[in-house]
Amino acid sequence: MMKTEAHYEGRNGDLAVRVRKTYRERRAIVFTLDADFAVSPGVTILFGASGAGKTTLLQCIAGLATPETGRIACGEEIWFDAETRIRRDPAERKLGFVFQDLALFPHLTAEENISYGLRRMDAGERAVRVDRVLQSLRIGHLRRRKPREISGGEQQRVALARSLVTEPRALLLDEPLASLDAEVKAGIVDDLRAWNAARGIPILYVTHDREEAFALGTRMILLESGRIAAQGAPADVLDAPRRETVARLAGFENIFDAEITAAHEANGTMTCRLRADEARPALLSNVLPGTPSDAASSMALEAWDNSRAMSRPVALEVPLTRVPAGQSIRVAIRAGDILLAGIRPEKLSARNVLPGHVEEIVRTGARVAVRVNCGGVCFLAHVTPAAVESLNLRVNCETWLIVKSYSCHLVGSAGALG
Amino acid sequence: MNRRVNAAWIIFALLGFLLLLELVLPLVNLLGQVRSADIRDALADAGTRDAIRISLETSLVSTALMTLLGVPLACVLARASRPWRRIGMGLILLPLVMPPLVGGVLLLLLFGPYGLLGRVFASAGIVLTGNFAGIVLSQIFAAGPFVVVASYSAFRSLNPRLEQAAALLGDSAWETFRRISLPLAWPGIAAGIALGWIRALGEFGATLVMAYSPHTVPIYLWVQFQAEGLRGAFPLALFLLATAVAALGAAYLLERLADDEFRGVLRGAAK
User: Fold this and answer.
1) What is the pLDDT of residues A191-228, one digit of tens each?
2) Going from the N-terminus, what domains does chain A have, and what CATH number goes with each?
3) How many CA atoms lie within 13 A of B47 on its CB side?
C-alpha cells in the first residue's frame, strides 16, 4: 500500500535544518544534537525513542533553543544562521507549534485561544478565519468552553486549530496524539491532511509510536542519540533496518552475530553461520526468585550453558546481498516471523528449518514468548496461546523452528549494508 | 500494625490540639469578654479614630508601593538562574526572620536625620522619621517580603510552555507578560497583597522606633494598654483582629480561585 506523494505547487519551500547543539552538565558533555536534513511540503515523521533528541530539535527549529552552529531556513526566509549571526525570535518565525502538553491557555476560552495569534488582524477577517478553522476541525460547538471543560481529543483539536489559524509557513507537532485512542487520532489526522492538501506546507510530526508513523507520513527521519540514523519511506526505514540500533527500535527481538560462509547466486541466497551469542536473549523482564518459572529458568539456563559448550554451528540461509564471504555481520529476525512446528515439516518455501528444544515459555496477555535453543543459539518466537495448546509446547520438549530467508535482515553496526 | 498506628495518631492529635489551644483560645476568650459599651466609648475617643485613620492611610500607601515594586522584582527573580534566585530570596526573607525592633533600628540608622540617606533627604528638606513617611517605610520593610514571596511562587508555578506558546503565536515579552503570565499568576499575587496589607496594618516593632507618632493602631493600642490596662486595649485589638480575619479570608479565597480555575495548566488535567 504505497502512499503517493502529493505534489505541492506554490510558494512554500522546504524547511532546511542544519543544527548542532551540545548539552553539558558540570563540564561533561551529556548529549549532542547533530542533524542536517530538509523537510519538503507534506508530512514528515520524526521518529525516535525518548531521549533521542526530537524535542530538542524542534525547540531549535522554533527558536526556543539556540544551536551552537548551523542554519535553519524556511523557503527563502532564514531563521537562524550561525555564520551571519541571524537569529530570529520565535515570534518572528511564521511557525506553528503544537506542544506535547498542548499548552492551551487555561484562562481563555477555546475561541480566545485560537484567535490568540491573530490579535493584530482586523476583527472581521479574524472572525472569518477562526470560524473556518473551527469548522474544518469540527470544534465549532466548543468555542466558548475553557480547556479544562473539554475532552483530551477536543483539546488536541483546539491546540491544532490555534497553530493552523495563523497560516504558518511550517508546522511542528511534538507527539500531539499521544494518549488518544485510535479513532480519535484517525479523525484528527484526516482533518490535518485535508487542511494541508490545500496549502502544502512542510509539517514535521514527532512520534515514537510505530503505528502512528506508518499511518501518517510518506517520509520518515529516524533520530537516535541526537543523530539521524536513517531517512526514507517509513516502511523502508523501519521494516528493513540497516542499522542494528534501528533494528532494536523497530522491534527485532533476535539479533545474532554471524559469518557469511557461502553465496549461492543461482538460489538468490547466502549461507551464514551463527555464533552462539554471548548474551542470552532477554525473555523475562521480571522473574521473582522462588517462583516456579524461576526454577524452570535456572534449569533452562544450565541446559543452555551446557549446550553452548558442545554446540554445532547453526547455519541460516539469508537473502543474497553484496557482502564478501568471511565478513561478520549481524542478522536480525522478528520474533513474530518465526514459526514453530511439532513435527519436521516438509515441502515448505522457507529455507531454514532448525531442530531445537524449548527452554522457556512466558505468556503475556494474548501473546506467548517461546525461547528455543537450536544448537546453542537461542531464538525468541512469538506465538498465540492457541498454538501452545495445539502443539502441546512444554519446556524441554523438542520442536522445529521455521524462518524464511526474507525474515532474516542483515544489519551493520556502522554504515548501511547494500 | 493497626494498634501502633492508632496510638501514634492519638498522641499526634493531642500534641497538635495543645498548640491549637494556645492559638485559638485567646481569640475566643477576647470575643467573649468584649462589651458593646467598650466599643462605643472607644469610637468616641478622638485618639482611636485618628489612629484608625492613620493606619488605614499608611497601610494603603505602603501596600500600593510594595505591589508596584515587589511584583516586578518577583517576576525578575522567578526567571533568574538558580544561584541568583537563591541569593535574591535569601535577601527578601531577611526582614521576615529579623526581630521587628531590630528592623526599626536598621531603618533608623539609614533614614534617620544622621543616617546615610536621611542626611541627603534632610538637606532637601524632607524628613523620613517620626511622620507618615516613617510609618510607610517601616511597613514596607516588614510586609514587602510577603508580597514578593507570594508573587514569586505564583510566577514560578506557571508552566513555561504557556509563555513559549504565546511567543510562537507572535507575542513580544511584554505582551506575553500582560496577557498570559500576569492573569495566571494574579490569584497568588493578590493573596500576597492581602497578607502584605494586613502585616503592614499590624506593624509595631519597627514603627515604634521609626515613627512613634502619629500613632498607628498598634502603637496606640500599646499606649492605651499602658494607660488603662486591658480594658483600654480591647476595641483596638478587636479592630486589628477583624481586619486580620478579613485579609486571611480574602487570601484563602484567592488561593482557592487559583487552584480551581487554573488546574488545567498542564495537559494531564484533561478528563
Assistant:
1) 888 888 888 889 999 987 777 777 776 788 888 888 88
2) 15-245 (3.40.50.300), 254-411 (2.40.50.100)
3) 16
Q: d(Cα B105, Cα B92) in Å, to the nearest integer?
A: 18
Of A100, A116, A155, the CB nearest to B169: A116
pTM metric for this prediction: 0.68
The nearest CA of chain B is from the CA of A64 a distance in Å of 7
Phi/psi at A316 (5° precision)? -125, 145
Helix (H) or strand (E) holding A230: strand A227-232
Instruction: Report residue A250 as a C-alpha cell.
Output: 523497530
Q: Going by DSSP bridges, is the β-strand pair A377-383/A202-207 parallel, antiparallel, or unpaired?
A: unpaired
pLDDT interval class at B3 (50, 70, 90)? low
Choose the weakest-confidence range: A169-178, A250-259, B58-67: A250-259
Question: What are the Cα distances from residue B91, in Å, to A72, A118, B76, B144?
Answer: 43, 42, 14, 12
Chain A residues touching residue B183 (CB < 8 angstroms): 107
Residue A33 pairs with which residues in a beta bridge? A21
> For residue A149, is pLDDT > 50?
yes
CB neighbours of residue A30 within 10 Å: 9
Q: List the strands of the sheet with A28-39, edge to edge.
A: A86-87, A77-81, A69-74, A15-25, A28-39, A227-232, A219-224, A42-47, A202-207, A170-174, A95-98
CB contact under 8 Å between B270 and A64, yes or no, is no
Domain B38-259, classified CATH 2.30.40.10, yes or no: no
Contacts from A139-142 at CB under 8 Å and sequence distance 24+?
A: A139/A110, A142/A110
Domain extents in chain B:
38-259
Does B264 reach chain A within 8 Å, measured CB to CB?
yes
Nearest to A410 by CA among A294, A242, A272: A242
* ipTM reported for the complex surpasses 0.90: no
What are the chain A neighbours of B269 within 8 Å (beta carbons)?
148
DSSP-assigned letter for residue A47: E
